[in-house]
Amino acid sequence: GQNIDQPTEMTATEGAIVQINCTYQTSGFNGLFWYQQHAGEAPTFLSYNVLDGLEEKGRFSSFLSRSKGYSYLLLKELQMKDSASYLCASSTNAGKSTFGDGTTLTVKP
Amino acid sequence: NAGVTQTPKFRVLKTGQSMTLLCAQDMNHEYMYWYRQDPGMGLRLIHYSVGEGTTAKGEVPDGYNVSRLKKQNFLLGLESAAPSQTSVYFCASSDSSEGDTQYFGPGTRLTVL
User: Fold this and answer.
1) d(CA A49, CA A23)
2) Which chain B residues touch A57 with a CB distance below 8 Å?
3) Which residue from A53, A64, A74, B69 puts its CA 20 to 30 A from B111's CA?
4) What would the pLDDT profile of B73-85 be if each residue is shown by its tens digit?
5) Residues in chain B closer than 8 A to A100 (CB atoms)
């Protein structure tokens, strides 16, 4: 079966760092995606981790531990435009992804 | 490239009516997906396709049918709409050559009265 857990809401201050955690239990696990979704818009790709460790891409980094079924998305130097929902999704060898319910991040001045 | 497009963008139906949502992609992707997203919730997979002429059930397939007659198109049908099908529907496509990263269409906002 597939199960994805992530916090429902988080709040942070502009310029700060925030970490959004995600735990998963996925049969046939292949990799872990993070997507960003602004209100009223479609999700857009942020990162994809297949191997254990941290991958950095500008202000955003994503970490994966396959043995622990755990991932996090790290956002640095937060900007107001980073206010959005962040979706964690586990993918399987069949090309399917199971999405979590998303974490709504609110960035305050 | 237009990417993934969806038609229509908005629709209001009465209970019992039928309709078809069209998804088109111009990236030559093998995989295509239909999701629904309800307020405050994540994406739930309705049906998906791993290639032209093939379809498979996802997490919440009841009340929906799909067809993939052409590689670039994936149709989602509602035979007899119900208020519980009021939702935002997203289509996506992906390819194994890109690590199965999914590219999403803009969404269709469907209301069933």
Assistant:
1) 14
2) none
3) B69
4) 999 999 999 999 9
5) 42
The DSSP-derived string for B6-48 is: EE-SEEEE-TT--EEEEEEESS--SEEEEEEE-TT--EEEEEE
- E strands of A38-102, at which residues? 44-49, 53-57, 60-65, 70-75, 84-92, 97-99
Choose from A45, A46, A50 for mutation: most chain B CBs within 10 A: A45
Q: CA-CA distance, A15 to A35, in Å (whole number)?
A: 21
Between CA B25 and CA A55 the distance in angstroms is 29
SS3 state at B105: coil
CA–CA separation, A97 and B95 (whole Å): 13
**Could you count the other beta carbons within 10 Å of the beta carbon of residue B7?**
13
Residue with tokens 């009841």: B62
The position carrying tokens 């497009």 is: B5
Going residue by residue through chain A, which has 109 residues, state the pLDDT in tens, using 9 for 90 and above: 568 999 999 999 999 999 999 999 988 888 999 999 999 999 999 999 999 999 998 999 999 999 999 999 999 999 999 999 999 999 887 677 889 999 999 999 9
Starting at the edge strand that comes first in sequence, how are the strands of the sheet with A70-75 ordered? A2-5, A18-26, A70-75, A60-65, A53-57
